[in-house]
Amino acid sequence: MWIEIVRTLRPACVCLALVCAAVATVASAAGEGQYRSKILLTPNDGDWARGAELSVEELEQQLGSIEDAYARSSAGRHLARHYVERKEYGKAIDYYRQALQAEGLSDVANREMLRELAQVYLLKKDYPAASQTLQEVLAIDLVPELSDFLLLARAQHHLGRYADVVATLDRIQAAGLEMDAAGMQQALALYYHAGAYAQCEVLLRRLLELQPDDPQHWHLLASVYLQQNKRKQALDQLTLARDKQVPFSERDVLLLASLHSANDNPYGAAQVLEAALASGEVAASAAAYRRLFEFWLAAREQDRARKALQQAARLSGDIELYLYLAQLQMEEQDFDNMHQTMLAACARQLPDKYVGRANLLLGVSQLKLGDEAGARRSFINATLIGGVNAQAGQWLRFMNVAPPTDDEVSGIVGLCYGENDERLEAASVAAPDTAETTTDTAPADAAFEVKTVAPMKLYYMETGQPPEALMASLRGTAISLYVSLAKAGGNADGPLQLIVTETGGGQAGVKVQVGAPFAGAVAGSGKYRVRTTIPFPCVSRMFEGEGDALGAAVAQLAEDARAAGHELSGEMRFVIPQGDSAGVPRLELQIGIR
What we know:
The protein has 4 domains: 2-231, Tetratricopeptide repeat domain (Serine Threonine Protein Phosphatase 5, Tetratricopeptide repeat); 248-316, Serine Threonine Protein Phosphatase 5, Tetratricopeptide repeat (Alpha Horseshoe); 324-433; 449-593, Multidrug-efflux Transporter 1 Regulator Bmrr, Chain A. The N and C termini lie far apart (98 Å). A hairpin with an 8-residue loop joins strand 6 and strand 7. The protein is an alpha+beta fold. Strands 3, 4, 5, 6, 7, 8, 9, 10 and 11 form a 9-stranded antiparallel beta sheet that branches. It has helices at 2-8, 12-26, 30-41, 48-62, 69-85, 89-102, 107-123, 127-139, 146-158, 162-174, 181-194, 197-210, 215-227, 231-243, 250-262, 266-279, 286-298, 302-316, 319-331, 335-345, 352-368, 372-383, 389-399, 432-437, 467-470, 474-487, 550-563; strands at residues 413-414, 422-423, 449-453, 457-463, 491-492, 496-502, 511-519, 529-532, 536-544, 568-576, 586-593. Residues 1-54, 426-446 and 579-584 have low confidence and may be disordered. The chain contains 27 helices and 11 strands.
């Protein structure tokens, strides 16, 4: 009687209760079995969970004695699901296999059980068993479902069997199954990782039809074209996306520019990148300006290339970029700017591999500006290092100057120096035109140094007081700043800085940052902030005197810099040497140049 009822009622919870009752009937306890069915179906007390657990335990104990195939398969499936919920996947797999071996359910039910079993194998990361189980699912003579192919392809992907992944996904179309957007996304990811880019193209075009406003599809299709070396199609795809105002990341903009260049259109590449830099879509970094320089150079736009290279060198402080810029200026016979570039490049010690080339370029600029003595010394320096020594020797022969002395070939002495060389201070060497106009009455500090200050981490506060007014209270300000820096866990790593960040509207519009370079991990607190400066090309001169004379000294340095052909950038810095903050008798003036 109970077996007939079980065959009629299919829900899992009813199935469990009635199978329990059937077992109880076999044990000649029909009344007790009916009672347990009622407890499971309509729990009326707080001990229901315990009752269910006991029923599962009894069902496990009596499962082997159930002779009816349907009841045996149904009970095994229920027990499997029970252990899946408890995440006891080993037991769940055993009961799924017992339920399948009993062969008591229809093909439709068996296929559903196999799908559940495959999911358990995937949860256990047993990908070979999951793959085999899903193959069994597809072997059943029923219309397959999309998820069967996607799960099988996923298991094969985990096994690294990419050819099988592609073959499995290709069967979806052969089976005449339709994919929604979610299914296409899953298939696309699997195809892409398997390297089946032609199939990716088809899916992405369909996704663009369904979801034309999704920027990911536009950019991914361009990537798929590139994977197949279809650079023209990739360029067309991104150009169309740009025209349709699809959102672009910085990486996407750089890719678009590079594709223009790869398709023999460096001018178009430069236009795209320059516009993105101007709008802020691409950050104004040294790398971006270096790429812009390369595009303009390839497009034979020398003036634009030079300006981009100047920006790249200024932002990076990279000596190699400075030397490249000097080379470009030499080719354009712009020797004044070439000389200034070399002074900036050699403002601090160079890596040894650049010393020879730097001296060669410096010597050319000196010679062209009439400083034959300086050029001779620079060319002699260049002959002492391999790589450019032959070129330097040719320049010396061209100048027809006296051969170098033993002292002169004993080591490098000059503006462009390396680790083991003797440095010649830039401030002690005036440019040729400056030397010609200097008079006996000129002040001793009329010369200035051209250099690039390296980036630094700055712990600072901002104030509206002009530098002259700050001098009177600088000691107290500095003490408070250093105390706050120490409390924040940082260590001072350089002299105190006064950085004029903005001027306008007279003295009231001046804004100054008072800060200290630091080392360590520090966060801003209260009125103090933290930032990292960029490389700062500047002219520099030492100042000694009272605060009321500072304005005149700054004006004089700015006038001297402009007279030497420099364009001022608008930023000024006042560097207080260590130990001088008490009365500020001596400081370094720095005025930014472009």
